[in-house]
Design goal:
By secondary structure, the chain is α+β, with helices and mostly antiparallel strands. The chain contains 8 helices and 12 strands. It has a domain of 193 residues. It has a 5-stranded mixed β-barrel. Strands 6-7-8 form a 3-stranded antiparallel beta sheet, with no helix packed on it. A two-stranded antiparallel sheet has the order 9-10. A hairpin with a 2-residue loop joins strand 11 and strand 12.
Length: 325
């Protein structure tokens, strides 16, 4: 019995040694250094930013006078679309339908307050050659720049910025724009093509078309993932109906949000709301009008959207006054 016990102890000791040896040889790589600038950079040039053309500028605007060549059908999301190339060979991701307007405008607003965004444009009418050839309408065109190329997805619930004010401010911005589809597949990391570029990566919320409407269902119905089950998009009347902040309890903010990602909002504090609203309050009226013009909204539609957004901003800034009482 004693010999059997000794043998067992020897085997266990060997296993411990092997485990320790393996752990020494298989140490994880050193963590990649991450800067908040990869998610957000203060827009020092805010007044000079062109919200009509956006981060891609006028030079990347899709050519309207020449047809585009079909490459493939869009295979993700609920909206139809294509991968195409223009006459110069530039590749474009095209999304058709109701999200085209809201995505371009929401993207412009996020970019204006410092969050990285891809080059995207609204095209009212264009011609496709090849498969599905013909005239197409109401489309979002998105392209990559030479400096950064898309790589992996990143998660709302697990990312390097989870405890930063910029990340929590990004959540607040989604609430101001009624962007309710906060899923991982909408987020993309862009890697710099030049190893010496700074920042080396850009974290973007890339597909923001499920915005400028309202969230309208609880978790159960949202999980069904049927069109319209989670909320509306590009819906002015719905946007005007939905509120912003329902109440504040201590350091917690309860938003008027009825989508399936409500747990994410629990991270947000009143200070985060004030931070984001401070950024948005700095946008001049010309910037707001340019952002909505980029999405082909009429002046009247733009005025109504901006009025509602400014009401939300005022409600958020009021939390600053409440804190000082």
């Amino acid at each position: 019995m004693r010999l059997r016990t000794i043998t067992r102890l020897a085997v266990l000791a060997s296993l411990v040694w092997i485990s320790d040896e393996y752990s020494l040889q298989a140490q994880p790589e050193a963590p990649v250094r991450i800067s908040v600038a990869e998610l957000w950079q203060e827009p020092a040039d805010l007044l000079q930013r062109d919200l009509y053309y956006g981060p891609g500028g006028a030079e990347l605007t899709p050519p309207r006078d020449k047809p585009f060549q079909f490459v493939a059908h869009k295979t993700t999301g609920v909206n139809p679309g294509y991968d195409v190339t223009d006459a110069t060979g530039r590749a474009w991701s095209v999304k058709l339908g109701i999200e085209a307007q809201s995505e371009v405008t929401a993207s412009r607003i996020l970019w204006a307050i410092g969050f990285h965004q891809p080059a995207s444009y609204y095209v009212e009418q264009w011609t496709l050659q090849g498969t599905d050839a013909g005239v197409k309408n109401d489309s979002r065109f998105r392209t990559d720049t030479a400096a950064y190329k898309p790589a992996d997805e990143w998660s709302w619930n697990k990312n390097p910025f989870i405890d930063t004010q910029a990340f929590r401010g990004l959540i607040v911005a989604q609430m101001i724009l009624n962007s309710w589809d906060l899923k991982t597949t909408n987020n993309r990391i862009y890697e710099a093509t030049d190893p010496s570029a700074s920042p080396p990566r850009l974290y973007m919320v890339r597909d923001v078309g499920s915005s400028l409407g309202h969230s309208k269902q609880g978790r159960f119905f949202a999980m069904l993932q049927t069109p319209g089950s989670q909320g509306s998009k590009n819906d002015l009347e719905g946007f005007e109906r939905q509120g912003f902040i329902k109440k504040v309890s201590g350091n917690r903010v309860e938003f008027d949000y009825r989508g399936m990602y409500g747990a994410l909002l629990n991270r947000v504090t009143p200070a985060d709301v004030v931070w984001t609203c401070d950024l948005m309050a700095k946008l001049p009226d010309t910037h707001w009008q340019a952002a909505f013009r980029a999405g082909a909204y009429t002046p009247d539609q733009a005025d109504r959207y901006v009025k509602k957004i400014k009401e939300k901003i005022a409600q958020g800034l009021a939390l600053k006054t409440a804190e000082t009482r």
